[in-house]
Amino acid sequence: MTNRRDFIRISAYGAGALAMSGGFFQAVKAFSSPEKAVALSVDLTRTATYCEVCFWKCAGWVYKNEEGKIWKIVGNDEDQHCNGRFCPRGTGGIGNYYDEDRLKTPLIRVEDRGKQVFREASWDEAFNYIASRMNTIKEKYGAESIALFTHGSGSSYYTTLMKAFGSGNIAEPSYAQCRGPRDDAFLWTFGEEVYSPEITDIRDTRCLVLIGSHIGENMHNGQIQEMSDAIDKGATIITVDPRYSTAAGKSKYWLPIKPSTDIALLLSWIHELIYNEYYDIKYVEKYCLGFEKLKEHVKDYTPEWAYGITTLAPDLIRKTAREMADAAPAVIVHPGRHVTWYGDDTQRTRAIAILNALLGSWGRRGGFYRPAKATVPGYPAPEFTEPARLWGDLFPGLYGVATGVVSNALIDASIPENNPAYPVKGWIVNGTNLINSIPNQPNTLKAIQNLDLLVAIDTMPVEITGWADVVLPECTYLERYDALRASPHRKPALALRMPATEPLYNSKPGYWIARELAGKLGLDSYFPFTKQEELLDWQLKQIGSSLDEMKKTGVKTFEREADDLYFAPEENVVFPTDSGKIELYSAAFEGLGFDPLPRYVPHEEPPEGFYRLIYGRAPMHTFGRTANNPNLTDLMDENTVWINPKVAKIWGLVNDQYIWLQNQDGVISEFPIRVRITERIRWDAVYMVHGFGHAQKQMQRCYGRGASDTQLMTKVLVDPLMGGTGMRGNFVTFVIENTEKEASS
Ligand SMILES: Nc1nc2c(c(=O)[nH]1)N[C@H]1C(S)=C(S)[C@@H](COP(=O)(O)OP(=O)(O)OC[C@H]3O[C@@H](n4cnc5c(=O)[nH]c(N)nc54)[C@H](O)[C@@H]3O)O[C@H]1N2
Ligand SMILES: Nc1nc2c(c(=O)[nH]1)N[C@H]1C(S)=C(S)[C@@H](COP(=O)(O)OP(=O)(O)OC[C@H]3O[C@@H](n4cnc5c(=O)[nH]c(N)nc54)[C@H](O)[C@@H]3O)O[C@H]1N2
Ligand code: SF4
Ligand SMILES: [Mo]
Asked: Distance, CA 391 to ligand 3 centroid (Å)?
């Protein structure tokens, strides 16, 4: 038997070992420590960075070899996000730099949109083109008719640019396509969101409940390390997933729930806690509001009731409720991260928030800690003028609970027949591949055809660049400065990213791009420093540090101002909610016309011969952004479709056979996908990893490899509370012979 730690350990050359091991709980042992690397060569220089391969933003060191070429990246020992270890994707980030298919120079479209015929342009020409179109849109429709879609480090510069220009229509896919519902659910319950990195105190937990969160395939670094530590210390893991995930393999209890029925399970757990008096009575009395109403609400939601819906045995539901209560308050019912599943996601994650409140885990060791965040001052710049119209004015009355800008609302407002209150006519798209990140591709493409301007800023020739009027090549994170990382954590900390080398080709850093464009728009005063390093040095000097100091340490960690990581015993906490209490019953939701307590409402079932399409992550890739990375395609270069053996038998499918998937609306996957027959998936669903099936020929390594889940998501279950795009309401069947596709191939 392998030792418990083995599953998490990455050996030397971690990523390679990972690929061979097949099973794996993905591991976060970087292949060497900085000290060892130095010992290998005397001439190595190291520069500080934080990783951009995913949004955990681990801080690390970039080493160059004797020829001065980027050679490897390792974790920074001081960093709370990674504790000195990078995951395989972070290690493989070098491939982002070396990828020969990168965008190399600005491009301007010369034929119809989408035909992908461009001419090379100088930066100056490209900026003049964009500025002139932006000004025309502003004159005709108002500044708010330009929207920014952005993800990643450059967001802050383009946000400044947009606000200075007069538009607040700035959306990130990490809201309505990812964690928006859970952050809103926790905000409306505890008055606080769960942030990134999540404030889950996993390292000290005694019971971790994962509802769909597939930690181990979801490679968020510190979280995996803490889960490994918790397992070593004997914590119980309970995993609820229709698929036997990597985490399920490490769990004491695997609950193979019928997909889409999680709210029923959560309500029955709440029932069990309340009616057996397993809940934290003192905590609830002191801190919570609406307990009696909750108790009445869940009266009939017994495990037997939930069994009929979830297919989970009542005894299993009872036992797991007891396990949580026994561990409380050192228990975490994980809020999840990508939670836009079925359109009732705010309510599902509200049920999770309520469970945590009943268990008294919020503010307690082994539950959720209080985060602390370092701040550096912004350089004085002119005030922004408040835009006359906001995104919420586009479709009045929609999404009353939303606390972020809903990207899909901006897309819908770009389609005239939707009758938005004012039109969106221009998109600036930075670091997000909207074609593959937003479900319902036909809708996104329709919106694009109605635009007067589409600018795509990216490092790779991804799908969205093919539809752009102007493509701007940003250099990779290894070739630039960026804003200081100041994420909340147990201790406040800052991390520096600086260039390890000059940008390749004619690519440029985001700060430079935003500043130059601002210049063309007469908005220079919002970017007072010519170079970002001057700004960073100024900011750091305000807090008694300097750029030179940060270059040496990479990370600067501060002590907390108070010893308040957890609530003190009997502490009188005023929660930042309307009532100052934890709101089990949400009068605010009620006031907005939504259920004040979560309810289970059944979802549509797959039609005969169809299976629910579910999806997730592969440990060695991040969405589609690594699909062409030479180091990571070496480890995994296509996705597979997981099919239960019973289903495979009915269809006569065999392992490794290529098939096409067809969804309920008749959409057939553009490329075939390899069959993987496995007991690890329920018979009523199929599973695939997101981020494959790229249709851009310019990305030579990933073009046509595997299938795209997004293409098959023509049905979107929009969360009426906050606009999140539920993506799991699509069903697929199998196309074994595809004469049309074969004929054309
Ligand atoms: N079908 C489906 N859709 C999903 C998901 C899913 O699982 N399935 N997941 C959802 C989730 S959880 C999220 S968070 C979103 C993520 O959505 P996105 O952030 O849009 O994800 P990516 O596809 O990785 O696109 C990122 C883009 O940024 C580019 N890029 C990488 N580094 C840089 C850089 O340094 N500068 C610039 N300018 N560009 C860079 C990449 O080349 C890529 O084109 O997708 C959501 N959409
Ligand atoms: N390696 C890697 N790690 C990543 C990322 C990446 O691209 N690559 N992306 C990061 C980002 S931005 C995010 S948001 C996270 C997302 O990662 P998580 O938040 O952990 O996962 P989800 O995408 O919500 O859920 C995927 C799991 O849900 C299960 N599932 C499907 N339907 C249901 C259902 O109805 N009920 C239940 N209980 N489970 C269901 C699937 O089988 C799968 O195991 O991962 C992060 N970490
Ligand atoms: S978890 Fe991995 S990919 Fe994400 S930031 Fe950390 S090292 Fe990079
Ligand atoms: Mo996400």
From this structure: 32
Residue 219, domain member (yes or no): yes
> In this structure, which residue's CA is closest to atom 13 in ligand 2?
338
Task: Return d(Cα 292, Cα 278) in angstroms, integer.
Answer: 15
What's the domain range around 710? Answer: 611-744
Residue 706 has pLDDT above 80, yes or no: yes
Q: 212 and 164: one domain?
A: no
For residue 55, name the pLDDT band (cuts at 50, 70, 90). Answer: very high
Residue 280 CA to ligand 4 centre (angstroms): 32
Residue with CA at minimum distance from ligand 1 atom 17: 437
Q: How many domains does the chain have?
A: 3
Question: What lines the ligand 3 site, CB under 6 Å?
Answer: 51, 53-54, 56-58, 82, 86-87, 89-90, 219-221
Q: How many CB atoms are located within 10 Å of the residue 285 CB? A: 9
| Same domain (yes/no): 417, 463 | yes
Q: Which of 314, 336, 371 is the last residue of a domain?
A: 371
- 711 located within any domain: yes
Tell me the C-alpha distance between 70 and 475, whole Å.
14
Say whether pLDDT at 151 is over 60.
yes
409 CA distance to ligand 1 centroid (A)? 18
Residue 313 has pLDDT above 60, yes or no: yes
> Whose atoms come closest to the Cα of 80: which ligand?
3
Q: 273: pLDDT confidence band, cut at 50, 70 and 90?
A: very high
Look at residue 239 and give its three-state secondary structure.
strand
DSSP states along 391-420:
GGGTSTTS-TT--S--HHHHHHTTSGGG--
Q: What is the pLDDT of residue 45?
A: 84
Ligand 1 within 6 A of 625 CB? Answer: yes
CATH number at residue 720: 2.40.40.20
Element (H, E) at 254: strand 253-255
Antiparallel, parallel or unpaired: β 658-663 and 673-677: antiparallel
* Ion ligand 4: protein residues whose beta carbon lies under 5 Å: 178, 338
Q: Check whether residue 233 and residue 347 sit in a common domain.
A: yes
Q: How far apart are CA 491 and CA 288, in angstroms?
A: 28
In this predicted model, what pLDDT tens digit does every residue of 712-727 receive, in sequence order? 999 999 999 999 999 9
pLDDT reported for residue 641: 98
294: CATH: 3.40.228.10
Atom of ligand 1 nearest to the CA of 476: 35
Rounded to the nearest angstrom, the distance between the alpha carbon of 338 and the centre of ligand 4 is 5
Strand pairing category for 253-255 and 236-240 = parallel
The atom number, within ligand 1, closest to the CA of 179 reads 12
Residue 432 CB–ligand 1 contact under 6 Å? yes
Q: Are residues 316 and 442 in the same domain?
A: no
Domain assignment present for residue 64? The answer is no
| Same domain assignment for residues 156 and 113 | yes
pLDDT at residue 4 is higher than 80: no
Three-class SS of residue 443? Answer: helix
Q: Mutate which of 54, 77, 218 to test ligand 3's pocket (most atoms within 8 Å of Cβ)?
A: 54
Residue 147 β-bridge partners: 427
Over 60: is that where the pLDDT of 683 sits? yes
- Where b means 16+ CB within 10 Å and e means fewer, 573-586 reads bebebebebbbbbb
Ligand in nearest proximity to the CA of 622? 2
Decide: pTM greater than 0.85: yes
Task: Identify the bridge partners of residue 59 per DSSP, sorted by sequence position.
Answer: 50
Percentage above 90 pLDDT, the chain: 92
Are residues 217 and 244 both part of a single domain? yes
Q: Which atom of ligand 1 is nearest to the CA of 615?
A: 7
- Domain membership of residue 280 (yes or no) is yes
Index of the ligand 1 atom closest to the CA of residue 174: 14
Asked whether residue 365 falls in the same domain as residue 421, the answer is no
